[in-house]
Amino acid sequence: MFNALKGMLVTLSTTLRKPVTAQYPKQHLPLQERQWGFPALTWDGEVGEPYCVGCMVCVRMCPTQCMSGTMIDNPKHAEGESTRRKIIGDFEINLGRCILCGICVEVCNFDAIEMSHEHEISHYARNGRRVDLPMLLDMGVKYQQESNWIPPTKKKAAVAAAAKAAAEGGAPAAEAEAGEDTAEKESEA
Ligand code: SF4
Ligand code: SF4
Question: Which CATH topology does 33-147 take?
């Protein structure tokens, strides 16, 4: 009898409790900074062109072969406006085949691709989630703005400079670590 009452009390308390679940897709919970969505191409706002130079390393390394692209001569380089001799011409990712492994981001030497926060590109057609260069760049710009993105090579250079300054000045290693922390915070801010 006592156990039955105890059980009913548990049921009652659960019934009155606020739900912990969200009615997706009607309700969207805020995304965490670490959200790992589809890959997107980043935009170099200083020059006004993509970071991607079309080297195709990511295309070759993608385990699902869902990426394709073409490299072209960069007209801005010819006009002396950009240091990139080559630039991406076309780029396509079939997000329906992407397994979000992040290998493309790991192998890119040009800060040109990031795992964005985008996760809702659904489509009824089997191949309906092929995204082209403008859309990949839109996704990238949105991600850069949301995350206050700093190019990873700039971040690494700041950490290396802090470590070098600490070594030369005889400062304790803690200062170099502090530099690393600052760079990380800047990227997370
Ligand atoms: S995203 Fe990076 S690895 Fe892929 S083609 Fe562009 S520059 Fe090369
Ligand atoms: S995240 Fe993985 S599967 Fe998706 S495009 Fe990049 S390398 Fe290919």
Answer: Alpha-Beta Plaits (3.30.70)
Which residues have a Cβ under 8 Å from the Cβ of 161 and sit 6 or more positions away?
Answer: 179
Nearest-10 crossing angle of helices 173-188, 152-169: 160
Given a cut of 90, is residue 114 above it in pLDDT? yes
Buried b (16+ CB within 10 A) or exposed e, 26-48: eeeeeeeeeeebbbbbbbbeebe
Task: Specify the DSSP class assigned to residue 97.
Answer: T
- Phi, psi of 8, rounded to the nearest 5 degrees: -65, -35
Q: Is the CB of 102 under 6 A from ligand 2?
A: yes
Rounded Cα distance, 123 and 175, in Å: 50
- Ligand 1 pocket test, pick from 56, 61, 131 with the greatest ligand atom count within 8 Å of Cβ, gives 56
Q: What is the mean pLDDT of the chain?
A: 88
Determine whether the shortest distance from the Cβ of 103 to ligand 2 is under 6 A. yes
Provide the residue ranges of all domains of the chain, joining segments of one domain with +.
33-147, 150-189
